[in-house]
């Protein structure tokens, strides 16, 4: 069943694909395969237990630094891109078709957050149950949005992607941690950044068996730990890292209550 607003693909943009493949293969257990991307250039796919959950690519002239981005499922990429622009955002890559993949556009919201909009090819249908999963190892288990002002972000994403927030966790001076739901599925949360220098973006937490055991692997693989390991509400443990190519990424273990 199609659920618009769900994340259906995760992509790492990095200057060093081989270094990324080694790091994430060791930490998450992903394997990789190659697929013809835009212009026929090879595109590397991340596979978790044989299923593609995302990809890794080097983008010429990319100026935003190494980063993870999500693709969100929409019915009409062109119309939703126009909605982003009308709300004060930008269309960074106009809607275009990729054979056997679907129609995509890269946009930036009014607060500076980058993400893709995607209408998948029928062959890609169902990835909302693979790329994102609260329980499946190797999939993204949590999508955390950090913005200057969540009171502006919440109505924007509700209108654009149908996200709703019916519950929030107070975090004292840091404000609320507002949970995000797509239908009956909780996909993550949005929070205000803690300082003006904190980057505005999505942070994705990928599920692994044991974040404590991963700490040494992160360091050995050339990455660094910037938060954790720590317990989070719901019974899970997380670490937030910088991978060896410079992209921030989270890992999570344990079952969510």
CATH class of the largest domain: Alpha Beta
Which architecture of the largest domain per CATH?
Answer: Roll
Kindly state the percentage of residues in helix. 10-25%
The pLDDT mean sits at 92
Which sequence of SSEs, written as H and E, runs from N to C?
EHEEEEHEEEEHEEEEHEEE
Could you give the distance between the termini? Answer: 25 Å
Low-confidence stretches: none
CATH topology of the largest domain: 2,3-Dihydroxybiphenyl 1,2-Dioxygenase, domain 1
Number of domains: 2
User: CATH superfamily membership of the largest domain, which one?
Assistant: 2,3-Dihydroxybiphenyl 1,2-Dioxygenase, domain 1
Biggest sheet, in brief?
Answer: 8 strands, mixed
- Strand percentage lies at 35-45%
Number of helices: 4
Count the E strands. 16
Spatial arrangement of strands, main beta sheet? 2-3-4-1-5-8-7-6
Content-based structural category: alpha+beta
Determine Rg (CA atoms, Å). 17 Å
Oligomer: single chain
**Shape label:** globular
Short structural description:
This protein is of the alpha+beta class.
Fill in the keyword field for this structure.
eight-stranded mixed β-sheet; 2,3-Dihydroxybiphenyl 1,2-Dioxygenase, domain 1; alpha+beta; 4 helices; VOC_core; 257 residues; Anthracycline_SecMetBiosynth; 16 strands
Structure description:
- The protein is α+β, with helices and mostly antiparallel strands and 257 residues long.
- It folds into two domains: 7-129, 2,3-Dihydroxybiphenyl 1,2-Dioxygenase, domain 1 (Roll), CATH 3.10.180; 140-253, 2,3-Dihydroxybiphenyl 1,2-Dioxygenase, domain 1, CATH 3.10.180.
- 17% of the residues lie in helices and 44% in strands.
- The strands form two sheets. The protein has an eight-stranded mixed β-sheet with strand order 2-3-4-1-5-8-7-6, covered by helices on one side. It has an eight-stranded mixed β-sheet with strand order 10-11-12-9-13-16-15-14, covered by helices on one side.
- The longest helix has 12 residues, at 150-161.
- The radius of gyration is 17 Å and the shape is globular.
- This is VOC family protein.
- Residues 6-120, 139-254 form the VOC domain.
């Amino acid at each position: 069943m199609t659920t618009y607003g769900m994340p259906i693909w995760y992509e790492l943009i990095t200057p060093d694909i081989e270094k990324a493949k080694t790091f994430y293969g060791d930490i998450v257990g992903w394997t990789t395969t190659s697929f013809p991307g835009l212009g026929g250039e090879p595109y590397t796919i991340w596979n978790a237990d044989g299923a593609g959950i995302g990809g890794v690519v080097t983008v010429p002239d990319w100026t935003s630094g190494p980063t993870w981005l999500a693709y969100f499922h929409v019915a009409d990429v062109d119309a939703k891109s126009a909605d982003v622009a009308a709300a004060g955002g930008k269309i960074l890559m106009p809607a275009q078709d990729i054979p056997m993949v679907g129609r995509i556009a890269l946009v930036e919201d009014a607060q500076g957050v980058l993400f893709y909009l995607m209408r998948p090819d029928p062959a890609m249908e169902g990835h909302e149950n693979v790329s994102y999963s609260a329980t499946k190892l190797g999939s993204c288990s949590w999508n955390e949005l950090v913005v200057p002002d969540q009171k502006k972000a919440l109505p924007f994403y509700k209108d654009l992607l149908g996200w709703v927030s019916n519950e929030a966790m107070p975090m004292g001076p840091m404000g609320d941690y507002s949970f995000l739901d797509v239908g009956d599925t909780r996909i993550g949360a949005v929070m205000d950044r803690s300082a003006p220098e904190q980057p505005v973006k999505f942070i994705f937490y990928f599920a692994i068996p044991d974040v404590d055991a991963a700490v040494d692997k992160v360091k050995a693989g050339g990455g660094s730990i910037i938060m954790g390991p720590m317990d989070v509400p719901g019974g899970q443990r997380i670490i937030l890292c910088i991978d060896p190519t410079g992209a921030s990424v989270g890992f999570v273990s344990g079952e969510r209550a």
